[in-house]
Design brief:
The chain is α+β, with helices and mostly antiparallel strands. The chain is built from seven helices and 19 strands.
Length: 313
Amino acid sequence: MQKEKGISTLVGIVVIIVIAVVAFGGVFAYQYFTAQTQPVVQTQQNQNIENKASIIEGISIEKPNLVVKGQNLSKVKIYFVPTGTGIDPETASRIENAVKQSDNNGEQVWTYQYPQDLLVTNIFAKGFDSKDNLIGKVNIPLMTNDLFEALYGINTTDQTAGWKTYTNAQYGFEMKYPTNWVIYKENSEIGEHSVFLGPEANYVKNIRTEESGCSVILAVFNNSEKLSLSDWLAKNDMWNQKPVKGITNIKINGAEGIKYEGTDYGMGGVTPIGFDSHVLFSKNDKIIDILTLDKCTDKTNTDKINFTFKFTK
C-alpha cells in the first residue's frame, strides 16, 4: 500500500507540472503572437492611408477657369504652350499651379483662371501625389470653335461676319480673311495648289509678305495613300520644318484636324529662326495645310482665320 501511495503521489506531481507547463506556454504563445500581429495590422492600416490611390481624371473649361478633376492629389500644375514658340510641351514656358477648390472624401476639383493675354497651341495638366511623384497627365481633348471662344472670349462667327471669303470649288473648301488683307498670289508653287494671303499694306509696299511680314499660306497636298494626318505628317516634310512641336487635335466647323508648330529655318537656312503654326485637314486623298508665319504678331487674328475654315462639299 505504501508503494502504491508513493506512485500516486508521483503521478499527481507530474500531472501538476504538465498542466503548469501547458498553461505557461499558452500564455507565452498568446503574448508572442499578439505582440507580432498588432504592429503588422497597424502598419497595414498606415499603408492604406498613405497609399490611397491618387488619380488625375481630366481637364476642361468652365469659363473663365480651367478645371481639373482628380482624386487624392497633393498638387496640380497647368502647362501652357504658347502659339508660335515651338516650345516642347514638356518644358512649356508658362507653368501655373492650380488651386484646390473642393475635396470630398478624396474627390477633388482644382481650378486656374485662364490668362486672356496668352494664345496657346496646347494646354495640359499634371497631377502629383504627396511624395511629389507624377501621377499622370491630361490634355484639353480638342480645340474647337466653342473652346476658342471660351478661351479668348472671341466669337469667330460674329467677329468675322464682314470679312472677305476665299472659296475653292475644285477642292471644296472656303476660308475667311480680314477686309484689309488680300490674296496676293495663287498658283501651284507649293503642293498641288497654294494661296498666299496677307495684309494689303505689305502687298502695296511690294514686300514679299511670306518672307518679311505676316502671311497665311494655304496649300493642298496629295495623300494618295490616304494616311491619317499624324502618319502623313510623320512621313512628309513639305516645308522642311522638322522637328515639329505641340501637336493638338482640333475640330473646326465639323472638320477634324491637327495643329502643330513647325521649325522655321528661313530661306535655305540651317539655324532655326522661329516657329510657324500649321493646321492640317484631310479629305479624300488630299491634305489641306494652313500655315501661319511666325512673323504674324496678331495671333488672335490669324487664329480667327483658321477657325473660319470649312469644307463646302
